[in-house]
Write a structure and sequence with these properties.
Elements (H helix, E strand, L loop, with lengths): L18 E3 L6 H7 L1 H11 L1 E5 L6 H11 L15 E3 L2 E3 L9 E4 L7 E12 L3 E2 L2 E5 H7 L2 H10 L1 E7 L7 H5 L4 H10 L3 E4 L5 E7 L2 E3 L6 E3 L13 H11 L6 E5 L7 H13 L1 E2 L8 E5 L3 E5 L2 E2 L3 E11 L13
Parallel strand pairs: 1-2
Antiparallel strand pairs: 2-16, 3-4, 4-19, 5-17, 6-16, 6-19, 7-18, 8-15, 8-17, 9-11, 9-14, 10-11, 12-13
Helix pairs in contact: 1-3
């Protein structure tokens, strides 16, 4: 078989992710397989890559492309909202109100094992907004106040969650089982404190590093979901409702400093402002493919109007222990 034609250099423009335009191949899967190494090299160089012109049209074909590009696909655990499975390894995007911004974050950065590569494919583009945004995490880290970074490096960040059947993911959806013994074993193995509630719900706490080193390059990265999963990022009217119904300790999720001290609204606003200053965006077009280095690059989602169907794959498992965490985590 002849070698594939070399890919052109991606277009680099301020405020936009690297963009690679390709002529629509007759078989996107074969094209992805032929150019796999070049595409992954571009992501390694730039942190993300938007491929336009690939012509992805359905879930089956998209899943096939995902499998060609990944070193291995992951099954999500500790999810915050149930995802629909479209094809092997291809899931729906996380459910989030379409009129609200989804803050920048790193997928599963609260877990001991997480995807090193995120794959997104647009089958239906919204009529307005809805871009999957990206931001360079080393640049974000450098832009944050040194004293704040030092505190997070020293203490890490604390994630608290309350699982119930009323809001967010249930225990079964998050852990893949309703068997309490299996859930407890998972929590112990992943350094998660847990307590069953009288109503049958589950409350968990886990402390993680907010700054890590990239497992390949060694670059320091701001890697967490401190802002995304904090109460101050929730829309005001929703936050007030949740506090009224569940109380401060019963929120579906919240983040604190590693010592348990609440993170103030001013800190969350600062984090989101720095993210905004480093955000790159490009409106989706049907058939687009976006590859994101999940450690080096944060991603989010803009509010949108109209139907939007973006499929997602979590790929290339990375262990937190291979990223020089600043907080020691000991699993049972």
């Amino acid at each position: 078989m002849p070698s594939p034609s070399p890919l052109p250099d991606p277009e680099l423009s301020p405020g936009r992710p690297p963009l690679l335009r390709v002529p629509g191949p007759s078989d996107p899967r074969d094209w992805a397989a032929a150019h796999r190494d070049a595409l992954r090299a571009a992501v390694a160089e730039h942190g993300s890559l938007l491929v336009r012109g690939l012509g992805l049209r359905d879930a089956a074909g998209t899943g096939a492309v995902f499998r060609e590009l990944a070193d291995g696909l992951l099954t999500e655990r500790e999810t915050f909202a149930a995802r629909k499975t479209f094809a092997e390894g291809a899931y729906s995007a996380t459910k989030w109100p379409q009129n609200q911004q989804m803050c920048m974050h790193h997928e599963m950065s609260y877990a001991l094992r997480f995807p090193g590569l995120m794959l997104f494919a647009c089958l239906t583009a919204p009529t307005e907004g809805g871009a999957t945004t990206v931001a360079d995490s080393p640049a974000v880290l450098d832009a944050l106040p040194a004293a704040l970074v030092k505190r997070f490096e020293t203490e890490g960040w604390l994630l608290t969650r309350n699982y119930n059947e009323e809001i967010g993911a249930s225990v079964a959806e998050a852990f893949g089982t309703e068997d309490r013994a299996v859930v407890e074993d998972y929590c112990r193995a992943n350094s998660i404190e847990f307590a069953w509630q009288p109503d049958g719900g589950l409350r968990t706490r886990q402390r993680r590093s907010a700054v890590v080193r990239h497992p390949v390059t060694g670059r320091r990265c701001w890697f967490n979901q401190v802002a995304f999963l904090n109460e101050w990022t929730i829309a005001e009217e929703v936050r007030e409702y949740l506090l009224d119904v569940y109380g401060a300790d019963g929120l579906p999720f919240n983040t604190c400093f590693g010592d348990g001290e609440p993170i103030g609204e001013d800190v969350v606003a600062l984090l989101n402002e720095v993210y905004a200053a480093h955000t790159r965006r490009e409106p989706w077009q049907p058939g687009d493919l976006l590859l994101v280095d999940n450690v080096r690059t944060a991603h989010g989602r803009e509010p949108f109007e109209g139907p939007r169907e973006v499929l997602v794959a979590l790929a290339d498992e990375v262990r937190l222990s291979d990223c020089s965490p600043t907080i020691e985590v000991t699993a049972a």
